[in-house]
Write a structure and sequence with these properties.
- By secondary structure, this protein is an alpha+beta fold.
- It has a single domain, classed as SH3 type barrels, CATH 2.30.30.
- Helix content is 18%, strand content 29%.
- The strands form two sheets. A five-stranded antiparallel sheet has the order 2-1-6-7-8, with helices on one face.
- Strand 6 and strand 7 form a beta hairpin.
C-alpha cells in the first residue's frame, strides 16, 4: 500500500457491485413490476463476447435493454451473459462488469455512469482519470416532487 486510500476506485467498485446484485436478482426472480434496465458497455473490452457483425455495427459501445425479450440471463461476480433479439434473431452476449459504461432504470429514475476504467490500477478512457467515480445519471424524486430526472454530479474538488 502506498499510504493513500483510493476512495474513488472503491466507490466505483461498490456501485458496480450494486449492478451485479441487481442483475443476479433479476436472473433468479425476473424483473419486478414495470422495471427495466438500459445497460451500455464497451464492445472492445477484453472478455466481451458477441457476434462479429454486431461488433462491426457497434465498434465502441453498445446499449442493450433488459425488458420483455431477453433469455438465459446468467450472472457471476465478473460478468453477465444474456440472449437478446437483434433484427429478429437471438444472439448471445457475455459482458464483464468492468466493461459497463452506464446503467439506467427509467422506472426508478436511477442511473449510473461509469468512467470506463476496467479495474484498479488501469487507466480510464482518454481524458478521464482512472478510478473516477461513476456519476448518477438521475436521482429518484424526493417527497412531494414530480419525477424529472434531476442530474446529480459527484465532484469532490468543487467548493460550496
Amino acid at each position: 500500500m502506498d499510504g493513500t486510500i483510493d476512495y474513488q476506485q472503491r466507490v466505483q467498485e461498490a456501485l458496480r457491485g450494486l449492478v451485479v446484485r441487481l442483475l443476479a436478482e433479476v436472473a433468479e426472480e425476473g424483473l419486478p413490476g414495470d422495471h427495466y434496465f438500459y445497460l451500455s458497455f464497451r464492445t472492445g473490452h477484453p472478455g466481451v463476447s458477441m457476434p462479429a457483425w454486431l461488433r462491426q455495427l457497434h465498434p465502441e459501445e453498445l446499449n442493450i435493454v433488459l425488458q420483455h425479450q431477453y433469455w438465459d440471463l446468467e450472472v457471476d461476480d465478473e460478468a453477465f451473459s444474456v440472449t437478446l433479439s437483434f433484427d429478429g434473431a437471438r444472439q448471445h452476449l457475455t459482458v464483464p462488469f468492468a466493461a459497463l459504461t452506464a446503467f439506467l432504470d427509467p422506472v426508478a429514475s436511477f442511473g449510473l455512469r461509469f468512467d470506463g476504467a476496467a479495474a484498479a490500477g488501469e487507466p480510464g478512457e482518454a481524458g478521464e482519470a482512472a478510478g473516477a467515480p461513476p456519476e448518477p445519471v438521475a436521482t429518484p424524486p424526493g417527497p412531494g416532487e414530480e419525477p424529472g430526472g434531476q442530474v446529480v454530479r459527484f465532484d469532490p474538488t468543487r467548493k460550496r
